[in-house]
Amino acid sequence: MGAHRWQLLLAVIFVLIAGQARAQKTSVDAKQTDSSKIAADGTAYVTRIVPVPSTISPEAQKVLARVVSDAAVPQTLEQRRTQTDKWQSAAGEASKKLYPVDIASDTIAGVPVRIVTPLVISPEKRDRVLINLHGGGFNSDSGSLSESIPIANLTGTKVIAVLYRLAPEHPFPAGLDDAISVYKELLKTYEASHIGIYGTSAGAILTAEVTAKLKQLNLPFPGAAGIFSGMGDFSQPGDSIALFALNGFSGHLDPPKRDEHSEYFPASLDPKDPILSPLYSDLSGFPPTLFITSGRDLLLSGTSILHRAYLRAGVDAQLVVFEALPHAFWNNPALPESQEADRLMANFFDKHLAH
After folding, report:
1. What is the rounded CA–CA span in Å between residue 130 and residue 144?
2. Which of 100, 163, 168 is closest to 135 using CA atoms?
3. Fewer Cβ within 10 Å of end Cβ, the chain: N or C?
4. What is the pLDDT of residue 13?
5. 98 burial type by CB count under 10 A (0-12 exposed, 13-18 middle, 19+ buried)
6. How confident is the model at residue 355, as a pLDDT?
7. Residues 6+ apart with CB under 8 A from 24
């Protein structure tokens, strides 16, 4: 083959390669084009490109980079509880390395509890106690250790983690009744103003429910409360639950349904019941409350909506929203943001519980 023909062939190959590269680039550009379609009823069908923000820690950026399949993975309740118990045990050990404490099992008012005690309790804090209502979707325990250990250590205050009865075997109000029983028993030893109640996710919802129930029972409120990624309305889904899965943008997500029933409460119960859904309760007089959520939290809407309701009722309520992180990120003790969140929680209780 002559030199001219070789040059011609190479030129053709170059053109083909360049054309293919342009096509690939066009394809990538097309994938990176934000789009939206709004239906007549306001339903949004959107595509968005969301870069990993540089405003969060490198550790948090790695968390957001984890890929979780969008496919639904069926899981039995037994499998969920086994998996959650295994994860909670590991998270508890990791937390204990950062925040040394003593842990014991006991029962209070017939309810099983974990007692998480700082290695040293100063004399002025011996008459204080915190109650943790753990997360886990009301059907498992994903926080009795990881949510209690840092707070006990940082506040220098004993934390009682209530192992309340779980749904679906024990639907609402079983878990609520257990939390109230523990609180009433602690009132025999501690002044109400020296008690704090807090929880994450299901536990955050329970915290608001406990407060509403205490008002109904005409019992004294605790000195402070913490609602960390929660909500107060089972009658309708919030906006964020349609956007985010447990891991934020990554993972399986079903479109929310307004009429979808939760296993947490009986089907016969009105989802706007003021104790089940405290958004419809009289919130006036509720104790100072700290709300914490995050930018990719599936309960971002629920937390912020309930916070606004507290403000409308005149409650001393503070809201902190962490950038970009997913639901209940503080259960990962390795994140700098988790350590910051734990300190915010601890400082809040130190400030508001009477000495």
Report:
1. 12
2. 163
3. N
4. 31
5. middle
6. 58
7. none
